[in-house]
C-alpha cells in the first residue's frame, strides 16, 4: 500500500506533467485520480482536496471527453459529495459496462455502492474483478472488507489470506486482517502473533499503526505502544494528535511526567486547529479528553456538557463509547455506565465487538461493577 510520502512524490510529478502541457487531459485525469486516492487512503480528508479532485476531473473531461480514464476520474470525484453520489454510481455503472476488464473501474464502483450501503451489489462487482485473469491482492483485500461489513467473517478472513498469499507484505491486507482478528474475533493472542509478522512499511500508515497500538495497549505493553507509533504523524488525519496516544502509553508505564508533557503537546496541536475551526465537535472532544487527563475538570466538564448537547440535537460525530470514557475521566461513573449501556444496546447492521471492554486498560475503574460486568457477559450485538 502506498504511503503518504509516495502520494506526495507522485503528486509532484503529476503537477510537473500538467505544467508541461496544460492541454493534456490524461495528465489532469491522473492528477484527479491521485486526489481521489488521497481521500480514500485517508491521507487528506480536507474539503480542499475534495474540491481539487472535482476541478481536476472536470479539466480532464473537457480536454479528453473520449478518455476512459477521464470519465473514471469524473465519476470517482463525484463519490465524495452526498448530493452527487447517485450520479457517480450511474456514471461508474456505465464505465463498468464499457470497461468490463478494468479492475480499477470495478473496484471504484464497488466502493461507491458500499458507501451507499448497497453491500450485496458492491460484492457483485468485486467478484467480477476477482474473476479477471491475473493475481490482484487489492481486490481480495477489498472483498475482505466488504465481507466483514456483511458479517461474513470466515469468508472475510479467507479473502485477506488470499491477498496475503499473493503479496505477504501488502499493508492494507495485513491491517484489515489484524483488525478482524482483534475487533471481530476478539483473539488477542492471534492478533499479537500476526502483528509480529507485519512488514516494517506497515507502521508508515497511521491507521495501520493505530490498530497495532490497540493490540499493544490491550496487551498492556506500553513500550510496544510507543514503538508502533514512532512513525505516525504528529497529527493523524483520522485519529488526531499522536501525543494523546503516546501520553496514554506513558501513563500506562507509570511515567507521569512524560504523559503530562505529551498531553500538553497534544493540547497545543488541537488549539491551533480550533483557532480556525472553532465549532468542530471532534476537535472539542480531543480537547476534552486532554484537559480531563490533565486533571483540569473545571475546564473539561463544560466541554462534555457541550458535546452531550450536540448529540441530543443530532450530532453523531462523537460515539457513545467515547462519551463514556470522557465521563469516566471526569469521575462521572453513572454517566459513563449509562453511555456504555446505550452504545451497546443499539443494534442496526454491523457487528460490534466488546473486545475494548474486555482488554482496554481505560475501563479498569469499572471492572467489578455489576453493570459493567453485565455488559461484558451479554451477547455481542450488531451495531
Care to describe what's here?
Strands 1-2 form a two-stranded antiparallel sheet. The chain has 21 helices and two strands. The chain is globular. It is mostly helical and about 375 residues long. Helix 13 (about 220-230) packs antiparallel against helix 14 (about 240-250), helix 16 packs antiparallel against helix 17 and helix 18 (about 320-330) runs antiparallel to helix 19 (about 335-345). The model has no long low-confidence stretch (mean pLDDT about 95). The protein has a domain at about 1-130: Tetratricopeptide repeat domain (Serine Threonine Protein Phosphatase 5, Tetratricopeptide repeat), CATH 1.25.40.10.
Question: Characteristics of this structure?
Answer:
383 residues, mainly alpha, Serine Threonine Protein Phosphatase 5, Tetratricopeptide repeat, two-stranded antiparallel ribbon
Strand order of the largest sheet: 1-2
**Separation of termini?**
29 Å
Helix content: 55-70%
Q: Which architecture of the domain at 1-131 per CATH? A: Alpha Horseshoe
Strand content: under 5%
- Class by alpha and beta content: mainly alpha
How many β-strand stretches? 2
Q: Oligomer, anyone?
A: single chain
Order of helices and strands: HHHHHHHHHHHHHEEHHHHHHHH
**Silhouette:** globular
Q: In DSSP terms, counting alpha (H) and pi (I) runs of 4 or more, how many helices?
A: 21
Largest sheet: 2 strands, antiparallel
State the CATH topology of the domain at 1-131.
Serine Threonine Protein Phosphatase 5, Tetratricopeptide repeat
CATH class of the domain at 1-131: Mainly Alpha
Radius of gyration: 22 Å
Q: Mean of residue pLDDT?
A: 93
CATH homology superfamily name of the domain at 1-131: Tetratricopeptide repeat domain
